Amino acid sequence: MTTIHIRTFNICSSTSSITSNTARGRLLTALYTYITLNLLFSKTTSLVIFLIINNPYRTPTSHPGFALSKSKQMKPSSHPPTTYPFPHHNLKHSSSKHEGGKLITGSPLGRSTWEPIQTKTRNSITRTLGLINGAQNLSTTLYIHNSTAPPSPTSTHNPSLFTFTPHLNPNASDCVYKLQKLKEYLDSPPPLTIPPSYEKLTTKLGSATLPSLTVPCTTPLESLFKGTLFYNMFQDSSGLWYGDYGGPLFLNCGLIICWYIFKEEDILGEDEIIMLKHYLKVHKQNDGGWGTHIEGGSTMFGTVMCYVGLRLLGASRTEMEDSRKFIIDNGTATCTSSWAKFYLCVLGVMKWESHNSTPIEMMLLPDWFPFGPGRMWCHSRMVYVPMAWLYCKRYVYEKADDDEIIKQLREELYGEGEYEKIDWKKARTTVAPMDNYSPVTYMMSFVMYLLSFYESMEVFKPLRKYLRERAFKRAEAYLIAEELQTNYICIGPVNKILNMIISRDDKNRFERHKERIKDYLWVAEDGLKMQGYNGSQCWDSSFYAQALHESGMARVYPENVERLYSFLEGTQILSTPLSANSPAMFYEDSKERVKAFRHVSLGGWPFSTSAHGWPISDCTGEGLKAILALRPYVEEGVEAGRLTKMTDSRIFNAVNVILTLQNCDGGFATYENQRGFKWFEWLNPSEVFGDIMIDYSYVECSMASLTALSDFKVLYPDHRSDEIETALRRGKGFIKSLQRRDGSWYGSWACCFCYGTWFGVEGLVACGEGGSENVLRAMAFLKSKQCENGGWGEDFRSCYNKSYSPTGAERYGDSQGACVINTAWALLALIKGGEGDSDSVERGIQYLMKRQLSTGDWPQEGISGVFNRSCGITYTSYRNVFPIWALGRFRQWKERDTTNTLRFSTNLS
């Protein structure tokens, strides 16, 4: 196979090929930096800044930092003791469909939408199936309906079916979706072929298709079997498992503002408006405010955004009185964060003078320049460019001055009669302490001052006009490239909405954007929300594939495995005929890819769907591991023509993506190589998010990539073997460098130290470090955090504060602070580290069994995901996938053949 060489912006290699000499690349980048500093400052100042930037004794670039001071620690959420009945709606989940005709491109596989339906609920029957979700948010009886409509809680059968009690737990449990899938499953159970050796177990625990509610599990194997049987009932016909990926509250308000500006029903229809309004209302807190996410205490960012969103959706001024008081008491909307100020300016309830200069001219900076969009983390870049576009156009909702709601908001957000008196320029630098997670640095303040000077001085007007005309053309080409590469899904919900606003005058682009809004929406007991991505389909399913393999359950459920394999095979980016024929393929050409600052995509796996189009290192690693793990189980289906064969060339493409994503430090970042410097963080303007300016190397991304390479090496020992050995050696060193003194690793993408430590241990063992001093320290750390009842627990405070939550998961876990998901992560790490026979593992397994519900489910506890250090995000699948995996790994440990421990043994029964 021909090796694909990529022009990249890796700081190791500057703009040269990724295979260029690392030392040479570092020298070139250092030289460019020094020359640039000399152009801006005196020689002495330049030398001092250069030495600070390149100090070899500083904290490594990708180190997440240490515990925050108490003054910055997060205030937990506090909700009024209110039970919220679920509003009537007429939405039904639909999967893998393209109903937009020619407006929608890319593969439909994995697409998730909630569609309006015409059929009202008819003849309903009751099946007593116990608790799908535990006692927190769902009644004990599940209503299964004989129609195609979802259950209607307004019917006379059970008006309180979907009640939501955020004071007990603000995390929804996906009951709306699960009841729909359960109804489909019971109406038409899929064919199952249970091996004869499991017939006795099947009979004891219920049947091959339905778990018994009265027979308790007495062994880990029974708990594993029942948990797998339950979760398999919710597999979609396309092979994946859908789940709620909501949590951030501010995302909904960007969507609402877009809908309000354009007043188009196909952005938000009547049912969506009802459900979205419900969602914002139920997450309102005691003090009248909202958090940035559902578990965080009230912030000005969350409160201002949600207040505006509800008022635009039709909430009255009277019912928002306590929220208005919260805003005024905390300094008015002038004290919210810069992101909220941006949206307020677009809507016309704040003047653009209050927003710091965001020049589109940055798009003209050359590749070699030490700072620029191409060197930023792609999520920041994708938000910065449309923000800069709208700022430089001074875009404002065209009817703002005549709109009665807008006029009222101008009074409500600042106080009566105050709007025209505000010093808007002063508001640029005001931010409430509760929003100030990542304070703007002195350097950034100085840069903002310079940009403000450039923006306001008439002498620069001809230059601004000249540069901006060219920058707008460059930015437009870049935004269109993003839309085509993602089939108008866009990388995330923020730039999705901003790109959509920008495209309003281009009917074709705007209509294509509208068709993809539904991809981001999800309905649960707390209402309709805009998710943090268009789902987590591939990510969740990749983990579950490995859990099925390692537990031996893949042999028990061959039909489920075939469907799962089919989804993962079809989700590999630009690797199926349909995806290869999408517009995104044009940008795989090296010249076009470099123009769009993109890394190679061909052969990678996404977080969500193939149509999304952005490959990620850990998603590619987990996707590759999942495919390799499932291959032995699907050989018959491939030979019979039911399944598509995953060719070696496609496997090699995935390995190429992984190898080319390794950074100078030996670690792996998310979407791209680390192209910038740690000092970029000094220019972070967001206040509410931390470590967002460059694509850092993470222990999670590194483990997923290294374990995938390790697994690949077993099956393909001759393919790029030297490169893989080098990657494993360098990656091992990076993972060790991130380990904390107490033996833990900080988890950047979930809560938090149990998660990070699991990844650290998995990565080191895959690199041949089993039993090493680093692994032993990790084992000691995990054992030190075990609760008396055998479980482990953390909540979101661990992520935010960068220190282990002092009361564990006490808020939404059990009374001792333990919870299911963290326990599963700790067990996975301990067993992988060789502690499978320890008392800690035995107690942890017993904890998982005790917490398991009679259906085979586990309770929904606290929020488990995180991004940008300060924002929680939901993964409802985690409560099933990881306990099953931990029980399965424990089973494998107990039944292991010490003479044959190959990961890909096909002899597991």
Structural features, described:
This is Terpene cyclase/mutase family member. Keywords: Membrane, Repeat, Transmembrane, Transmembrane helix. With about 900 residues, this protein is mainly α. Helix content is about 45%, strand content about 5%. Among the domains are: about 80-190 and about 240-360 and about 380-435 and about 495-535, Glycosyltransferase (Alpha/alpha barrel), CATH 1.50.10; about 210-235 and about 740-909, Glycosyltransferase. It contains 33 helices and twelve strands. A hairpin with a 2-residue loop joins strand 9 (about 520-525) and strand 10. The chain is globular and about 80 Å long. The model is unreliable at about 1-25, about 120-160 and about 900-909 (pLDDT under 50).
